[in-house]
Amino acid sequence: MMGKQHTGPWAHGGWRSEPPDAEDAAAWITGRLPDDWFIGPPEVTIDRDEIIIAGRLAEPGLEDDATEADRAAAEAGRIAGFREPTRDRRIQIAQQIEHRYRRKVSWGAICGGTQELFTNLSAPVMTRLRQPERQVLDTLVDSGVARSRSEALAWCVRLVGQHAEQWLGELQDAMSAVDELKKRGPDLS
């Protein structure tokens, strides 16, 4: 009789099972990061594939009458000044996080109104679409909005995310409530 089969990129043969629970990840990551990197706890965003860590940097001291272009350039400079010197340390910390939570780690920084992700996972997602849905994607490609069906689908997902942000937030809250109820239920194993 064969044992449990594991699927996904982390198990033997390049595939994995579901990653472990990451409920404590934001707290663990906050405790693991050097105190002098960010001016507060980092923003930690988690899904089943990736953990994004974005920390807020102190804003550059500019004159009150600085232009928006000067402000944006100063913020970009502050982010670049953080990115390069912390690279080796961020890699070490990411390896520890990846081992603990079995997810890829991406880094970013926020300064004033500027946010930059240094690395970001692009996960392939497979779907079956019927002709009307494919025609939508093909229209986006043919019009030059996207270079491929894959890019067109990503564009559609971003558009829905922008226009349905409140609804998606409510849906995520409801799913969290269901997860909490499941945890309080009987253990059937």
Question: What attributes does this structure have?
Answer:
disordered N terminus, 5 helices, 189 residues, globular, 2 domains, alpha+beta, 4-stranded mixed β-sheet
Q: Describe it for me?
A:
This protein has helices spanning about 25-30, 70-100, 130-140, 150-165, 165-185; strands at about 45, 50-55, 105-110, 115. It is an alpha+beta fold. The chain has two domains: about 5-120, no CATH class; about 125-185, no CATH class. A hairpin with a 3-residue loop joins strand 1 (about 45) and strand 2. Helix 3 crosses helix 4 (about 150-165). The longest helix is centred in the middle third of the chain and has 34 residues, at about 70-100. It starts with about 25 loop residues before the first helix and ends in a 5-residue tail after the last helix. The model is unreliable at about 1-15 (pLDDT under 50).
The domain count comes to 2
* Oligomer description: single chain
Major sheet attributes: 4 strands, mixed
**Element pattern in H and E:** HEEHEEHHH
Give the class from helix and strand content and strand pairing. alpha+beta
Mass-distribution shape: globular
Poorly predicted sequence stretches spanning 5 or more consecutive residues? 1-13
Q: Helicity, in percent?
A: 40-55%
Q: How many beta-strand elements?
A: 4
Strand order of the largest sheet: 1-2-3-4
Summed over residues and divided by their number, the pLDDT gives a mean of 85
